[in-house]
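Hi P.,

Sorry for the delay on this. The queue was packed all week, but I finally got your sequence through. Input first:
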Amino acid sequence: MPAARPASMSGVTGSAPRTGGPATLPLYLTAAALARTADEGARVALVMLAVQRADSPALGGALVAALMVPHVVAAPVAGALADSVRRRRLLHGGGVALYGVALAVLAALVGRAGDLVVLVLAAAAGCVAPLLTGGLTSLLGELLPKDRLTRAFSVDAISYNMAGICGPAAAAALGAATGAGLALTVLGAGGTAGGLLLFALRLRPRSGTRPRRARPVDLLSGAAVLVRDRPLRSVTWSSSVGQLGVGALPVVSVLLARRYDAPWATGGLMTAFAVGALAGSLSYAYRPVGEERPERVVLWGLSGTAVPLAAVPWSGHVLVATALFAAAGFCTGPLFSALLASRERYAPAAVRTQVFTLGAGLKSTFAAAGAATAGALSGLGAAPLVLGAAACQVAASAVGRLLLTGCRTRWDGPAPVRARNAPSGPVGTAPDAAPSDVPSDSSGKGHS
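Then the structure:
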């Protein structure tokens, strides 16, 4: 097992113990699931609402884009702010609650107020969204003891999977039964409830008499760590490249549904993928194999995802293709859990939230690029696209291995941010030592 981290990594004073108790993880997961379900469901509800009230699918697409683009653009700012404030409960709880309120206001205004007004409001809500994803996950390292973190990240990955399944399903069901306006209002209320629950988390204020103010240069600190630190560099860019293929799968699902003349497969294949991911996360939570080197689990997960996807063109039946999608999803469960664990293990305390929000933003960007590319190439048919999705996983694994074990670059070296803050390496390591230069497990072997 890796050496224990000093208490200062959590941003608490001296040797103060962790504050997480038996109810901490259930409380966190409830809040995270409510917030993320609202985020996932809003993308469906907004399109339905624009169609129902304004008869404008274009407005619905623009609203989703306005909500999603700030996930990426605002990630450095949201991360830097979260890393600099003293009382994080106020930022995270208030931000998530305001996100839910914004969704409820959108439910009232879409189709009734000017398009520019609702688009600006959606964009403002999207600026808070990084706190719902990577921002929340970054809190786990401060809420729980180190020996519970691996399973906690696996369970947190489950909250993402459940949100991805339940959010769109709830939005579609409520929107069809009672109207998209009420569906979006309900989702917004759930997000607000999640934000209010976050106020109950026992997060110690950061040490010091006053909070550290975020400076413009701080916006680049997290990105610099993602370039310098070999394990973080590896998992960040490999998982992002892998998302090129995952982002293409909804388009592939539509083409496969036409090929097999099975309309249910349009959503059924992606549901199978999501259920497989949920099962994979549960399995990894029960038995976290390879937790000493989570970056290696990410790379193996990418390779494992490629195998069933590559077999889809020869499946011969829609049910076989569905099983292969589920198998591919199963491999992404441990992959995502290990990705979260890698960020927690190797990110310096001073920029930990930035690392989480930037990583999540990059994945979203690559997934969107994959979906756009697959849409543009849809004329090629399902088989070339799904083989391309599998090839992305192989390429991502190769990129990750190269970045992890390849020759040192001019970026590999002590990160200045670590010299300015409390030690964030294993016990006994110099404060300014980069993680790629220190042992990562009890055997004393380095990351490469």
